[in-house]
Design brief:
By secondary structure, this protein is mostly helical. Helix content is 75%, strand content 0%. The chain contains 9 helices and no strands. The protein is rod-shaped. 16% of the residues are buried.
């Protein structure tokens, strides 16, 4: 039972070990991807600040204001990613504005982070400052898809476990009680009507006895009828 079930008061059946393993893996993948995204955005912060400051004196007002640019873009990006992750969990597709906001913030982060490297024509700096924004971009696209696929795996495993047939337990058959001669005779006696020919075949039909016993029953009942 997970925390959500406890808080809502629901008491469902316990999850199978396979489902619990998938859920733990999904949580770990989610945390690792978000950690990588946050570290990548933190790495780009100083480069974006240098781009925005544009040579302003250290500790000056423009220098301090330049520190606000990267968090502004990063917070919008994180908000969009988080909302997209939650909506995807319930199968709700977001509109074009959401996708546009995500791509625009990612592109803006990349351009501001690599502008000086391209201006200096330094291939090493271009590669260095391109890796963090691209990692953020790839992780942003992958984190939602990975979470959805792992969720589908957990749901599929839960369905398979629930549909798994219960083990068949061999039960000892209840021994049938043996019908006595008198009980067979009483059945035949109850079924007889005046004019009915008492034969072994007729006794077997109405009493359900064996062929060997039907002759004795027919003889006994015929004698009673004659009397």
């Amino acid at each position: 039972m997970n925390r959500r079930d406890v808080e809502s008061g629901r008491h469902g059946p316990p999850a199978s070990p396979e489902v619990e393993t998938i859920e733990r893996t999904r949580s770990q993948v989610d945390r690792l991807c978000w950690t990588g995204i946050l570290l990548g955005l933190a790495f780009t912060m100083t480069n974006v600040q240098s781009f925005a400051a544009a040579g302003a004196a250290v500790w000056s007002l423009p220098w301090w204001a330049a520190w606000l640019l990267d968090p502004m873009v990063s917070l919008v990006l994180l908000a969009v990613l988080r909302a997209e992750q939650v909506t995807a969990r319930y199968g709700i597709r977001t509109g074009g504005w959401v996708r546009g906001a995500k791509w625009f913030t990612l592109a803006a982060t990349y351009v501001m982070n690599t502008w000086q490297a391209f201006a200096d024509s330094s291939a090493a700096l271009v590669v260095l400052h391109s890796v963090p924004p691209l990692v953020v971009f790839v992780a942003a696209e992958a984190v939602t898809d990975l979470r959805d696929k792992l969720g589908e795996a957990a749901r599929g495993m839960a369905v398979n476990v629930n549909e798994r047939p219960a083990p068949v337990v061999d039960e000892d058959p209840v021994p049938k009680r043996r019908v006595s001669f008198d009980e067979y005779l009483e059945r035949a006696r109850s079924a007889w009507t005046p004019g009915t020919a008492v034969t072994p075949a007729w006794v077997r039909e109405v009493a359900g006895c064996s062929r060997g016993l039907s002759s004795r029953l027919a003889a006994t009942l015929a004698e009673e009828v004659r009397e």
